[in-house]
């Protein structure tokens, strides 16, 4: 009997740890569930709560020190000049260039700019590009410079001639990289002349972004897109233009979007041909999850612009090597391109091929001449070469990805400014309207185009100009009804 009792006690002792273990697991599960719920709630709040509006220094000095106590705020006429010294030096460099390594058979532009076609481009630049004629062409509009926050800022100013019943409204046109003010030349007459069915026409302000073309670059780090937005607002203020519309693409989209966020009482409407929220966390989460159920994100006929996710991601990785270089070591690539016109032309014009249509890279000439002329393309390259601005232009990428710039979270700060986008088929990034409305609370419309790429103003000036007129008419109706939040 004693043995049986001892065995029973032993069994009881052995079973108790099991009960304790099960009880502990239950508590752990409950605690884990609670913590998971709290974490999910926290993440949801983080993703859906807009960050505060950043406090920008509207008078930050970007020029060399010491700060000028009484800066020259005059507006000075400016002329683009292709001097004999610059032209002769350029021709000498082109003449004495080293032989290029032959391209791989059938490679087209898939390894970069095809060196056989590059020889043709450089021969044209050296012998057939009419420097004097192109200088006159670029100077056909009125150019000016004025000092803003320590930097000489270049801009084109076109004032239309109108009759009394046509209203003149100001429009700020913002270019991107590797573009310049040259992109807008074919659009200028389409925007600055009255057209049937519209009772307004545009007064155009077309600046070179700081560090681009003939606008001076910053003397110290920190001049990113948000700071450029301040410079552009101060330029419009210098011109006594208090309220205005904006059109922009690429970097011009980023700067324009920041202006529509920071200066909501000044910007009457924002038209973009690059409608995207690159640094909006929730938009990126939705985009990623949408690959599992695309119809929740976009209409079936447009899903191919966004998915399959793996294919679009691989394409982005393949085409974004330049961005990583420019965001980390801009001065290194800038030095190489500053010293070599052949390198500069190849680096810039390769983007005008692939970013216009990714299929173009299969062609030995990048199909560049299917959409553009060599003269027009080299006009843009000449602006970079003559102004020696390639280094200061690519520094914008380093500033865009800086800790300071990302901390602003301006892609996530809402704006009540009305916004209108045009989506060309081969643009580098596509986002549906539902995601764009996460930031642009009054996103009015998207025009969907079944062709065209990144350089819309140069490739499709008529389509873009028509869309700008339609957008601004909608903006004016929006304001006539009263602002909505």
What does this structure look like?
There is one protein chain. This protein is an alpha/beta fold and 485 residues long. It has one domain (75-481): Alpha/Beta hydrolase fold, catalytic domain (Rossmann fold, 3-Layer(aba) Sandwich). The protein is 47% helix and 12% strand. It has helices at residues 2-48, 84-95, 115-127, 131-138, 188-192, 225-238, 251-262, 281-289, 309-319, 321-328, 330-339, 341-354, 368-371, 374-387, 390-400, 403-408, 433-436, 456-459, 461-481; strands at 75-78, 143-148, 151-158, 167-174, 200-207, 244-248, 267-272, 419-424, 443-449. It has a 9-stranded mixed sheet, sandwiched between helices. Strand 2 (143-148) and strand 3 (151-158) form a beta hairpin. Helix 6 (225-238) crosses helix 7 (251-262) and helix 11 runs antiparallel to helix 15 (390-400). The longest helix is centred in the N-terminal third of the chain and has 47 residues, at 2-48. The N and C termini lie far apart (86 Å). Mean pLDDT is 92; it is low at 11-23.
Total strands: the figure is: 9
Q: Which architecture name does CATH use? A: 3-Layer(aba) Sandwich
CATH superfamily: Alpha/Beta hydrolase fold, catalytic domain
**Could you please say which CATH topology applies here?**
Rossmann fold
- Give the helix/strand class: alpha/beta
Report the major sheet: 9 strands, mixed
Low-confidence stretches: 11-23
Helicity range: 40-55%
H/E element order? HEHHHEEEHEHEHEHHHHHHHHHEHEHH
The whole-number mean of residue pLDDT values reads 92
CATH class: Alpha Beta
């Amino acid at each position: 009997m004693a043995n049986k009792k001892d065995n029973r006690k032993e069994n009881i002792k052995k079973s108790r740890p099991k009960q304790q273990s099960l009880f502990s697991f239950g508590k752990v599960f409950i605690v884990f569930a609670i913590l998971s719920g709290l974490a999910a709630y926290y993440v949801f709040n983080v993703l859906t709560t807009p960050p505060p509006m950043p406090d920008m220094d509207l008078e930050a000095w970007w020029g060399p020190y010491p700060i000028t106590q009484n800066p020259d705020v005059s507006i000075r006429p400016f002329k683009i000049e292709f001097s004999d010294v610059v032209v002769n030096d350029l021709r000498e460099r082109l003449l004495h260039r080293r032989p290029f390594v032959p391209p791989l058979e059938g490679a087209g532009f898939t390894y970069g700019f095809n060196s056989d076609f590059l020889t043709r481009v450089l021969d044209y630049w050296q012998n057939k590009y009419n420097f004097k004629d192109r200088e006159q062409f670029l100077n056909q509009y009125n150019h000016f410079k004025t000092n803003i926050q320590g930097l000489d800022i270049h801009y084109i100013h076109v004032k239309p001639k109108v009759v009394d019943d046509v209203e003149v409204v100001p429009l700020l046109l913002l270019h991107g990289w590797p573009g310049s003010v040259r992109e807008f030349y074919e659009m200028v007459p389409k925007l600055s002349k009255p057209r049937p069915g519209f009772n307004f026409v545009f007064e155009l302000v077309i600046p070179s972004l700081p560090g681009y073309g003939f606008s001076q670059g910053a003397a110290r780090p920190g001049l990113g897109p948000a700071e450029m937005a301040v410079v552009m607002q101060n330029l419009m203020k210098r011109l006594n233009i208090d309220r205005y519309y904006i059109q922009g693409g690429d970097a011009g989209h980023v700067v324009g979007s920041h202006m529509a966020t920071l200066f909501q009482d000044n910007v009457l409407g924002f038209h973009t041909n690059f409608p995207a929220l690159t640094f909006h966390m929730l938009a990126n989460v939705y985009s990623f999850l949408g690959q599992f159920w695309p119809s929740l994100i976009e209409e079936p006929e447009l899903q191919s612009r966004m998915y399959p996710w793996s294919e679009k991601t691989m394409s982005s990785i393949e085409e974004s090597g330049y961005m990583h270089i420019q965001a980390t070591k801009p001065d290194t690539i800038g030095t190489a391109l500053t010293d070599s016109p052949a390198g500069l032309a190849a680096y810039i014009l390769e983007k005008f091929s692939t970013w216009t249509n990714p299929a173009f890279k299969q062609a030995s000439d990048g199909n560049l001449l299917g959409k553009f002329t060599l003269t027009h393309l080299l006009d843009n390259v000449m602006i970079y070469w003559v102004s020696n601005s390639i280094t200061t232009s690519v520094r914008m990428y380093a500033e865009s990805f800086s800790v300071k710039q990302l901390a602003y979270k301006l892609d996530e700060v809402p704006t009540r400014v009305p916004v209108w986008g045009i989506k060309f088929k081969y643009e580098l990034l596509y986002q549906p309207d539902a995601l764009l409305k996460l930031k642009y609370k009054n996103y009015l419309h998207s025009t969907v185009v079944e062709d065209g790429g990144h350089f819309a103003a140069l490739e499709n000036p008529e389509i873009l100009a028509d869309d700008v007129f339609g957008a601004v008419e909608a903006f004016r109706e929006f304001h006539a009804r009263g602002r909505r939040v």
